[in-house]
Design a protein that fits this description.
2 helices, 4-stranded antiparallel beta sheet, 436 residues
Length: 436
Amino acid sequence: MARVAAYGSWRSPIGADLVARAGVVLSEPWLTAEGVFWLELRPREGGRSVVVRADASGAPTDVTPAGFDVRTKVHEYGGGSYLVHDATVFFSNFVDQRLYRQEPGTPPEPITPAPPSPGSIRYADGRITPDGSTIVCVRERRQGDETHNDLALVPADGSGPPLPIASGRDFYAFPRIAPDGSALAWIEWDHPNMPWDGTELHVASLSADGLSEDQVVAGGERESIFQPAWTPAGELCFVSDRTGWWNLYRRGGEGPQALAPMDAEFGVPMWEFGYSGYDLLDDGRIVCAYRANGIHHLAILDPLSGELLDLDIPYTCFDPPYVRARGSQVVFVGGGPTTPDQVVALDLDARSVDVLRESEQLSIDPAYLSVPRPIAFPTEGGLTAFGYHYPPANPDHRPPEGELPPLIVHIHGGPTAESTPELSLGKQFWTSRGFA
């Protein structure tokens, strides 16, 4: 029987020690014929990031060995710190910021020259040509008080120095190689714009000598482009906010073609490299994460019909989005109000869902966990504010009749910050004690 007790006085199994205990941070999954790879940031190892692989059996094993920390400092926020080609892993090592190549069963070997000073040359957001010979990536060079960014070609075997192929702009991101290796798409922009203010989407022919026939496909000072990607057939897709919403588009002969126009966000502010809000299936469909009215969705989009079908999966938060696909296989990082972040493998043909790794394992009865609901309320200037309401939740207690709970209001900060409905033991500490 639940005991009557005043809000705020309820006894809870969620203590401060549990709140302070840090789990691993899961990010940047990759999917190849050799298995699923992802990145784990481990607080108990001094914040070291490790590439982990799950093979056909699903058993996770570390790929990068002790003594290496897979992180890049490009743009300071980093992200996009590794890539996989078949079973070979290429990664940025945090200490020296050099790129390393690691073949299965062998120690990592550097493939970029030692910088003039430790960490002064950095690499991020790389992709490899179909033949596995060359990496295209963002490079950042520190020279005194000056910083220069460009796109560079890096020989995958370390046989030569990086070759700059695009320069002159303040920032670059998302270099993406066409399936046949003949073209490159990327975005670029200049200070003071942030990537959610205005960026340009470029496409150029790619060869061993660099780029040619560079052309601007979309974007500008007032249009933000996010995550270009090539379909298996060689068509170019991207996300644009030209309507005020980040929607999916396909490059067309008469300009960008909206694939699913709606009041929803298919992109996010690009604070880090490595975000992937969507990916292409072999049959031409698109698996995508989007947000509408405070609700996160993972869906399949048919670009021919515009039909968008939400997947029936037990995850309600994809923040930031890490969605990758290969054939009919999908891997993503997902969670929810009562579910810690997980690396999840989804087989669309077999309709199976496999959890490969959890960020932390909790032994808390879900009855103690408050499930938020999105709310909207009027605010000044005739505008509407949005949020999530977490009611008190504790099966051992109930309040006196007619009593209302004390309310803690948490306001997110910054112009691009966002509250998301992911599991937060910091919030559950209070709601399980009778606070809203």
